[in-house]
């Protein structure tokens, strides 16, 4: 009987142990890293009015992906003790014992070198420089600030705003007005997104020692108010992308409708200040971004087609 029980427990442990692929994917925060790839790709496409260099685009997104995975692995290495205290993160590879700290460090450093090298040789040094700055800002500035000041959210938003610039600079070799506005949109979008997340996992963040705005008593109203203000700011910011000539009327209309939708969800969060209203806002931000980026690309493609028709006409 005891033998059978031990066998069953061993079988359960084998079932629960993640695969090597799943372990590395979690260490690299692959879903979050893929989001940076999408925004970098959009930045590249938006900066290519006369046609996309697909080879350069491929290496730009691969380099960006490697750098994003590097930053995620090094961030988890730095926070593994805090991750162990939180329900949401205690099963990550390092606190769960699936990989060693040295293993995670080597994984992160190698990926960082690969990413910067790909961008340097196949895109340009400027894009590689922004990618390296993103890793350093994420690991050396944002990560330690998370336990020191609630302003860490805004620093983290800067990190998330840089991937579209990597794509833009990878395509053009320099910054442009459209690229700066695009980065601004990503910066502002992250604020209601992460504030809603912080509200959803308020107790977990407190256990981990992270100083989020929601960690202070009575701060829910202030957090919700910031979410409303930043959501509303996305409407004129997206219109600015049309004003500088990067997108057309289609994007101006669709982005305004999307901005109204997100602002409405933020107002709901502000009015109720509950976990459910925070979840509603969080999922609204997830819906908002991919649709916005898709409309952006459609609008840019239309402008490119008109320009090419006029050029050949």
The total beta strand count reads 0
On the 0 to 100 scale, the average pLDDT is 87
N→C terminal distance: 85 Å
Low-confidence stretches: 1-15, 306-313
List keywords for this structure.
single chain; 313 residues; mainly alpha; Tetracycline Repressor, domain 2; 13 helices; 0% strand; globular; disordered C terminus
Brief sketch in words of this structure:
The protein is an all-alpha fold.
What does this structure look like?
With 313 residues, this protein is mainly alpha-helical. The chain folds into two domains: 15-175, UbiA prenyltransferase (Tetracycline Repressor, domain 2, Orthogonal Bundle); 176-313. It contains 13 helices and no strands. The protein has helices at 2-16, 20-27, 30-46, 54-78, 80-85, 101-122, 125-145, 152-172, 177-200, 202-208, 220-243, 249-272, 275-312. Helix 9 runs antiparallel to helix 11. It is globular, with a radius of gyration of 21 Å. The protein starts with a helix and ends with a helix.
């Amino acid at each position: 009987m005891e033998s059978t029980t031990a066998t069953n427990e061993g079988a359960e442990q084998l079932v629960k142990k993640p695969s090597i692929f799943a372990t590395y994917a979690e260490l690299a925060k692959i879903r979050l890293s893929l989001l940076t790839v999408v925004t970098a790709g959009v930045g590249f496409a938006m900066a290519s009015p006369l046609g996309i260099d697909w080879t350069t685009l491929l290496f730009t997104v691969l380099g960006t992906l490697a750098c994003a995975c590097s930053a995620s692995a090094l961030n988890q290495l730095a926070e593994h003790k805090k991750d162990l205290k939180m329900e949401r993160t205690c099963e990550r590879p390092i606190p769960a014992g699936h990989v060693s700290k040295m293993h995670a460090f080597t994984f992160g450093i190698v990926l960082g070198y690969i990413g910067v090298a790909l961008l340097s040789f196949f895109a340009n040094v400027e894009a590689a420089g922004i990618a390296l700055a993103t890793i350093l800002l994420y690991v050396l500035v944002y990560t330690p600030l998370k336990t020191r000041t609630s302003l860490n959210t805004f620093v983290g938003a800067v990190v998330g705003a840089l991937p579209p610039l990597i794509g833009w600079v990878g395509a053009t070799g320099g910054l442009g007005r459209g690229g700066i506005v695009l980065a601004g949109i990503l910066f502002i979008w992250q604020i209601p997104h992460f504030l809603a997340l912080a509200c959803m996992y308020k107790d977990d963040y407190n256990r981990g020692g992270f100083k989020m705005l929601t960690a202070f008593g009575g701060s829910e109203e202030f957090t919700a108010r910031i979410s409303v203000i930043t959501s509303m700011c996305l409407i004129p910011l997206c219109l600015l992308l049309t004003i500088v000539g990067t997108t057309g009327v289609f994007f101006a209309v669709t982005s305004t409708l999307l901005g109204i939708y997100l602002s409405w969800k933020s107002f709901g969060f502000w009015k109720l200040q509950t976990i459910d209203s925070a979840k509603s806002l969080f999922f609204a931000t997830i819906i908002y971004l991919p649709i916005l980026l898709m409309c952006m690309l459609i609008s840019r493609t239309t402008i490119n087609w008109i320009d090419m028709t006029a050029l050949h006409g």
